[in-house]
Amino acid sequence: MASIRDNIDYIFDCLCESGGFPSTRSNMRPENASRDEMQWFNKIKCNATNIKTLLHDITICAFKETHDGTDSHYFAIKNMSHLFLQDLFNSSFFSPVEMEDVYFVYFCKILNLKVDIRYTAAEIDEYLLHQQDDSEYKGHSLSELRDYFEGFCVIKVQDLSIELLNDINVCYYYILTSYKRAITLPLYEYTVDKMREFFIGNNKIPKDNIFLSLTSSHLKHCFLELYRCIEWLYVIPRVRKLKQVINYSEPAYTLATHCTNELSWRRKEEDSLARLIEDIIIHDELIKLKMMYSEFFRDIECNSLAFAKHLYSFRNQFVHQFEFEKEKKFESTTLVDAIDILTDLISSVYAHYDQDIVCWK
Length: 361
Description:
This is Apea-like HEPN domain-containing protein. By secondary structure, the chain is α+β, with helices and mostly antiparallel strands. It has two domains: 4-165, no CATH class; 183-356, no CATH class. Helix content is 49%, strand content 10%. It has 16 helices and six strands. It has helices spanning 4-19, 35-43, 86-89, 101-110, 121-127, 142-146, 168-176, 189-200, 207-214, 219-231, 236-246, 252-263, 269-283, 285-292, 304-319, 332-352, and strands spanning 44-45, 51-55, 58-67, 70-78, 94-97, 152-157. Strands 1, 2, 3, 4, 5 and 6 form a six-stranded antiparallel sheet that branches. The radius of gyration is 27 Å and the shape is elongated. It starts with a helix and ends in a 9-residue tail after the last helix.
């Protein structure tokens, strides 16, 4: 539980560490807080396990406030500005919250905010560390102190019905991928939009892989993380047929797990991928057409086995280290196209097999 005294000490200690400890450090204090501000501080509740650093130097933390018996849900995000989250606010899910001194005191220590590197030790010493020596000193202005620290912003959840609130990590993924600088690869904008939609849909897609794919720094890693969303479903096409034969009522994936554990049954990966693609292109004409006319599958025969062989060959090349002469040569635009196809394939596969897939977590 956050302590006002501990948090205030953290703020002044950070400033003193950066600017030099004055002999009157013990006299440094903030301006007196109002009763409402003190009560507000105590109404903020944050679980330490929800503090996550998922992108470089960007820490996010979910918290709630209870007023008049009603809970409101918020997120504090270190090194982030509302300016960079405008796309997030264009939806009806979230809204920006004005920064207040209460938030600064509460989250400065929790988010591990440091003194901004723009300020020199001399500036901190001159402007902040000796105010308490003035005979009319009534405390440091928290608003002034806030300007000397790394920034953070607060956003509020507007729509409490959205599915992503059921998993705090998925909520973080959706919020952070609205930050354009988090996605550095030259993906199609519509591909990014489709991938982010996975976070807010009621589906069984492994969201961790989608987030890692979106925020990867290399196209082959982006491709592999998406491919892994398909890979664990290799077993489904065969086991669906077995399930029908033996009149098994549980999801096909559960039956496949039994076969693996009890009979040491192993999947044939490339053939399994071909069966999976066959199932999908029979039921989804759009993705079949997309694969037929895509840059990635250019010069590849139009059938599920050929599609699978080509897709699987890229997966193998990215997972294993081949001799240079044996590696497939490709342009980055071709891989961007493949990533878009994989995104559509994931969407179609998870919709088609929904009843036979268990939840990832």
